[in-house]
């Protein structure tokens, strides 16, 4: 008989407790310091290589000062929606600045990037209309598609023949193609030149999520469009402020009429409070710094190149990475958790990513770099990866057979016998696929 208590499933959800007890739980770790390349976690210094603070601006003195100034002038909150009482002059100032930055007529600022994707997709893709997404698009895009009244169609990751097949099927239906500029797990870049060709052939509109490409791709950091010299071919630029822009918030930039429409039909803009002044001011200051300081992007790419070449030289598979996001293939899911823990104990803070976020048996350690990492910090990281990678038999030169280490016994856990149990798998599956 079905348990009638709605909470029954919560009481039975012990999966995460088992991983915590085993000592390999990598999530919700609390940092006790600012957002630099070195952070303090559990009282110890770690070099962080899983941050999205690509240009290191989250701790830039000018950005911090701008935030503090905004609090002095406007207070801590706008206490309402953009639609009603929650718009201040700073919101409109950064909207104009962002639109100009990405070469569009207008922009609207949402409270997060997640809200921006929900708002744009749900307001644009109505009944009898289609949204076409890459299978590796970010969860916030997928959530927007699930909420939209139109139908979602997916194509295989960066597979242009598959995209064309989908476009052919819906030739006479209004459609929007939505892709990540840089894919958040694999670190590869959307094939924008082909997408543009196909979109024009089949009369589709293009939206590019520049979360991981703004401040990163293109000579001046304007993103995927600039990278390919196709800025004017992208119909809608979406970007989050939570990465290179050292704040929080989400932009949608496009033609004046399109932004006006989205602004007046987005439930995720209208029915939530607006971005607080301190966050808006941080975006404003970050955009100014990116415009002026070209060295930051050059330094980010210096670090990216050093790490990609460094990992490959010691035998890691960096997959299809073309950006500061460098995933390293580890193998089985549990091996990724183990490697995460071993790196953590060595003073390196990275992220394990397991199936279904990546194909079964191809779990990764996802790493990402900042302009503010020093060569010494990056050499330290490479040394630790070499050591741990060899111990786990992921790269040549180590013991292929994984024996439980003294440390592992302390974690009350044997990876040699441990398989990813089914409840753990279903937790990840539901999270990743948003229960659909
Ligand atoms: C590709 C992509 N799009 C959108 C988002 C959502 O942005 P935000 O953190 O501002 O909600 C993220 C954040 O992780 C992302 O990686």
Query: How many discrete structural domains?
Result: 2
Average pLDDT number: 92
Radius of gyration: 22 Å
Second CATH tier, the architecture of the largest domain: 3-Layer(aba) Sandwich
Strand numbers in spatial order across the main sheet: 3-9-8-7-6-4-5
Folded structure, characterized:
The protein is an alpha/beta fold. The protein folds into 2 domains: 18-48 and 295-435, Aspartate Aminotransferase, domain 1; 60-292, Type I PLP-dependent aspartate aminotransferase-like (Major domain) (Aspartate Aminotransferase, domain 2). 42% of the residues lie in helices and 15% in strands. It has helices at residues 8-12, 15-22, 61-74, 89-101, 113-124, 139-147, 160-169, 192-201, 224-228, 256-265, 267-270, 277-292, 295-313, 333-345, 375-391, 406-410, 422-433; strands at residues 38-41, 44-48, 106-110, 130-134, 151-155, 175-180, 204-209, 236-240, 250-254, 325-331, 348-349, 351-353, 363-368. The strands form 3 sheets. Strands 3-9-8-7-6-4-5 form a 7-stranded mixed β-sheet, sandwiched between helices. The protein has a 3-stranded mixed β-sheet with strand order 1-2-11. A 3-stranded antiparallel β-sheet has the order 10-13-12, covered by helices on one side. α3 (61-74) runs antiparallel to α12, α7 runs parallel beside α8 and α13 (295-313) packs parallel to α15. It is globular. The protein binds pyridoxal-5'-phosphate (PLP). Pyridoxal-5'-phosphate binds next to α5.
